[in-house]
Design brief:
One of its GO terms (biological process) is porphyrin-containing compound biosynthetic process. It is built from 15 helices and ten strands. With 355 residues, it is α/β, with parallel strands linked by helices. It has a single domain, classed as Alpha-Beta Barrel (TIM Barrel).
Length: 355
């Protein structure tokens, strides 16, 4: 942490105001890889808020990135509503069975109570601990899984996609229940004093069409964004995979910052919606951060900065998505050290000299 001249809170505040800062914000999205920093197993995070907090605090102190994001897996809301989730000994959880297998059983589903159901109480406890310990110096954020993705876990992704053609009202009914759960969790996160980011992988154009995004995902994203803005909180929205054709709708929904996956071009994002939203991304998680060398990470980080440092609404250097758990620490260091070396203000001449 002593490599930086500002805390993340100071850095974001200065950036938002157009004031001088020491470097661009940088967020390698560390998820369950935090367990590797602390030396525990991922399965130990289950129902253990203090351990989740200690792992993420250890990772933040080790690397010095700009947001502490408390997140374990995508299934937390669906599991709290009845989906069956498998917890391997030392890998990220995966969905075993959806909560229902037929829309006729939708009456079995109830919105979550985040202080009682599933692993949500542990996540809230982790957020409370992290906020108390470091919330004065770094944003502490929960991750809210958005309605369409949670709906897919409630009835199965294949079933949900078929329903978009055969039973659109059933999709909306599932999304309404999932939205109620997301809002319940979001309220609990805000009550702690934290913020949150929105994650909606099933809305990717890799999975559904832009038309289906507009019909089945956009209305619920907008209601989540409106809720955040009513509480004076900015919204960061991540959708995995291909998203170019829905960037304008992501902005229309109310996202203040959009997180771009590695297969998209940050320059195109900047040119398309950079006058409306901050852009975040997009060093490749597997090919570069997991499998590459520190030199590879440095080169790609510089490329991302070159493409998007002058985005009108600002730019956050980040991984394209959550990091695989086994990303070498040296590669995370290389990403942050490159951003530190570039410094501020960012100039093309400085980038050229580093290439």
């Amino acid at each position: 942490m002593n490599k930086d001249q500002m805390t993340p809170m100071e850095r974001f505040s200065a950036y938002d105001k157009g004031e001088p800062l020491d470097r661009l914000p940088c967020v390698p999205v560390v998820g369950n890889g935090a367990a590797r920093v602390l030396g525990c197993k991922i399965s130990e995070f289950r129902d253990n808020g203090p351990l989740i907090a200690e792992a993420h605090l250890a990772a933040y102190r080790r690397f010095g990135y700009d947001t502490v994001r408390i997140f374990t897996d995508l299934y937390v809301l669906a599991e709290a509503m009845g989906a069956n989730v498998c917890y391997p000994p030392d890998e990220t959880a995966h969905l075993e069975n959806s909560a229902i297998d037929d829309i006729a059983h939708i009456g079995r589903l109830q919105p979550v109570d985040p202080r009682r159901d599933g692993n949500l109480p542990a996540l809230l406890q982790a957020l409370e601990i992290a906020h108390e310990r470091v919330g004065h110096e770094v944003p502490v954020a929960g991750a809210v899984v958005c309605p369409l993705t949670t709906a897919s876990f409630l009835i199965g992704t294949d079933n949900l996609v078929r329903m978009m053609h055969r039973n659109p009202e059933g999709v909306h009914s599932l999304c309404e229940i999932a939205l109620a759960s997301a809002l319940n969790y979001a309220r609990a996160v805000l009550d702690i004093g934290c913020t949150f980011g929105l994650t909606e992988p099933v809305s990717s154009s890799t999975i559904i069409s832009p038309a289906h995004f507009e019909k089945f995902s956009y209305p619920y994203l907008k209601r989540l964004c409106d809720f955040m803005h009513e509480h004076s909180k900015p919204v960061t929205l991540h959708i995995c995979g291909k998203t170019e054709r829905i960037w304008p709708l992501m902005a229309d929904a109310g996202a203040d910052c959009i997180s771009i996956d590695e297969m998209e071009d940050l320059r195109k994002t900047k040119e398309s919606v950079g006058h409306r939203v901050r852009v975040m991304g997009n060093v490749a998680t597997a090919e570069t951060l997991l499998q590459g060398s520190p030199a590879d990470v440095r080169a790609e980080t510089l490329d991302c900065i070159r493409k998007a440092h002058d985005n009108p609404r600002g730019f956050i250097v980040a991984s394209g998505c959550s990091l695989p758990t086994e990303v070498p620490f040296a590669n995370i260091d290389a990403m942050l050290d490159t951003v530190r070396e570039v410094g501020w203000p960012v100039t093309v001449a400085k980038l050229d000299s580093m290439t």
